[in-house]
Amino acid sequence: MGRRPVLAAGLALGASVLSGCGLRGRTLDEALNEAAGNVDGVTSSALETVTGAEFQRAIRGRVEISAARREQVLEIFGEVMTALVDAAYAQADADSEGSRVVGAITALSSDGEEYGIWDLRPDLEQSAGRLDAVLLSDFAE
């Protein structure tokens, strides 16, 4: 076998392996949005996984909720966070996914009021102190 066919086969194999790296992120994004969308009261979700400046893995975005009353919105928002935990843990092990930062996820009520993680879990403001310290594992049951 000549050098060119071996080189071409090696390049093709390398490309196929590297192309798989990007699929996992898209698959997790889809799983997260599907999980959020399956929660009763969620009208839409726009969640994405990102890597921060210090290679910190995070989930950020917004879910829109059909309720207007604060109590209902926060109850549904809590169910969304539980669903995100389940979806992320289903994609990989709990240790790796539990360390994802989730402080930049917000809920938008039907009357346009936006709620953040501190609204949902005020106790985390005391313990975490910063939104970039709130982890997905904080919502595991």
Q: How does this structure look, described?
A:
There is one protein chain. The chain is α+β, with helices and mostly antiparallel strands. 51% of the residues lie in helices and 21% in strands. The chain has 5 helices and 4 strands. It has a 4-stranded mixed sheet with strand order 1-2-3-4. Strand 3 (101-108) and strand 4 form a beta hairpin. Helix 1 (3-37) packs antiparallel against helix 2 (70-91). Residues 16-26 have low confidence and may be disordered.
Distance between the termini: 57 Å
Strand adjacency order, main sheet: 1-2-3-4
Helix content: 40-55%
* Helix and strand pattern: HEEHHEEHH
Which stretches are poorly predicted, pLDDT < 50 over at least 5 residues?
16-26
**Structural class by SSE content:** alpha+beta
Q: Can you tell me the overall shape? A: globular
Number of strands: 4
Largest sheet: 4 strands, mixed
**Overall mean pLDDT:** 83
Q: What value does the Rg take, in angstroms?
A: 19 Å
In what range is the share of β-strand residues? 15-25%
Number of helices: 5
